[in-house]
Amino acid sequence: MKIRISILFHILITLLFVGCQKETSNPLYGSWKSVGYGKYLVLDSINYAFYDHTDISCLPAQKGDISLFDKRMHLQNDTLIITKGTGLYSYTRVKQLPELCFQKLSEDKRNDPEYNFEVFVNTIRNHYAYFELNKIEWDSLYTRTKRNVSTQTTAVELYMIFEELIVALNDNHGYVEPTDEVYQEAEKLDAHSRETDTVPEYGDFQIAQMVADVYLEENMTKDSGLVSWGRTCDNIGYIQLKAMWLFADLQLSKEEIEEKGYVDAYVDTFTKMNEGEYIKKERAGVAKVMDQVIHDLWDTDVIILDIRFNGGGQDAVALEVMKRFNNKKRLIATKKTRAGKGYTQPIPIYLEASSRPYLKPVYLLTSQQTGSAAEMATMATLELKHIKRIGSHTQGATSDALEKRLPNGWYFTTSNEVYLDARGKCYENIGLPVDYDLHYPDDRQTFFRDVANDLEGDQTKVFKGIEVLNAK
């Protein structure tokens, strides 16, 4: 009787792994299943390997040298705990990986639109955290959407179906990244379906720099394209953070940057790294900049911290920034993760203290474009009484993004975590409020244009807010 190659391979791997376990007797080695997140992890004396798992698929996700997990893994009773940024991730031991993890997909299967659709919706069904909050009738939505998918569905059509589903879910961290060819073709179709807009459009960094140029009467910025700082009038310090990522020194070559552009080269590099190591580098990068910023602005009477055009990045970066304004360790939030029909136990998130914090008045500027990790920075201010918020409520995209790949190689994400402030309130969709409301428009480009068309006027409104709040 012939034995299928996949089963034989499975048996050999298991025997080799058991042999390795006996040889090393390290309790960390073996196969593990995540609590939530849909992942399996295999550890041995040399390597780690992650697999993304759904009810119908198990795909290799990432592998590397186990040394990258040094000091970030430990056993707590029978549970493996891995730390990453602000998170603690739990894994329970399993005897072996599911058979799905050893099945090799044919080219046709990997690109089958129906199979990719089912993997996508299975991930959402099992991990999306806001069905109840957003009043989503999932079974009905799934059935309606499935009718549009067949074996004849093109890649562009499948991408647009995914996009429409994300919109229907109101998933603030839902995202699909197809191939460049598919994305460009979808953009062409979208452009044909709407009228040409002749008014100018601004990018986040572009409008941010225009604003910074108005505020910085004394520009102290050096060696940073992500943070601008200096003094404005009346000995007021001004700090503008354009993003909560891109701070890591990833040793990008000049050739890589010229070929792909800085951001694409940066993304290509960090996605190949162990995520914990990457976040560590992000934190170190922003710490170096913020140490210089606070040193330069230490003698100011007030600081304006502007994150109105900051769409987010890494929570660890946000907390490293806000640490400079905190004098003791504080609980600022908790987060829980969708797991099965419920949620994991809430994990506390703390803001660490600075040895030399800036405790004079600080005014945080926010808008509806302040999102994700920038909202973590905003949430921290709820526990810092010397910081007041001016502008408009934040975006309401507080969850982390669960990152996955489809069988066809497309990258996608969904919101699988619920963040609560220190008093247990969730700000998903509604955003974090301000103390002085400037009533910015919800629409991104309308807001950017309003600011760009009257930069001095917008600054005057901010100063008026400071005056009003200071008088209370």
CATH topology (fold) name of the largest domain: 2-enoyl-CoA Hydratase, Chain A, domain 1
CATH superfamily of the largest domain: 2-enoyl-CoA Hydratase, Chain A, domain 1
Strand content: 15-25%
Oligomer: single chain
Low-pLDDT runs: 1-23
* CATH-level-2 architecture of the largest domain: Alpha-Beta Complex
Strand numbers in spatial order across the main sheet: 4-3-2-1-7-6-5
CATH class wording of the largest domain: Alpha Beta
Total of domains? 3
Set out the fold topology:
Layout: H1 5-24, E1 30-34, E2 39-43, E3 47-53, E4 58-65, E5 73-76, E6 79-84, E7 87-94, H2 107-110, H3 113-127, H4 138-146, H5 155-169, E8 175-177, H6 180-192, H7 204-215, E9 218-219, E10 227-231, E11 236-241, H8 254-260, H9 262-270, H10 275-297, E12 302-306, H11 315-322, E13 330-339, E14 342-343, E15 347-351, E16 362-366, H12 373-381, E17 387-391, E18 401-405, E19 411-415, E20 417-421, E21 436-437, H13 444-453, H14 455-471
Parallel strand pairs: 11-12, 12-16, 16-17, 17-21
Antiparallel strand pairs: 1-2, 1-7, 2-3, 3-4, 5-6, 6-7, 8-19, 9-10, 10-11, 13-14, 13-15, 13-20, 18-19
Helix pairs in contact: 5-6, 8-9, 10-11, 11-12
Could you walk me through the main structural features you see in this protein, from its secondary elements to its overall organization?
With 472 residues, the chain is of the alpha+beta class. The protein folds into three domains: 5-102, PH-domain like; 107-192; 204-396 and 431-471, 2-enoyl-CoA Hydratase, Chain A, domain 1 (Alpha-Beta Complex). 36% of the residues lie in helices and 23% in strands. Strands 4-3-2-1-7-6-5 form a seven-stranded antiparallel β-sheet. Strand 2 (39-43) and strand 3 form a beta hairpin. The termini are far apart. The model is unreliable at 1-23 (pLDDT under 50).
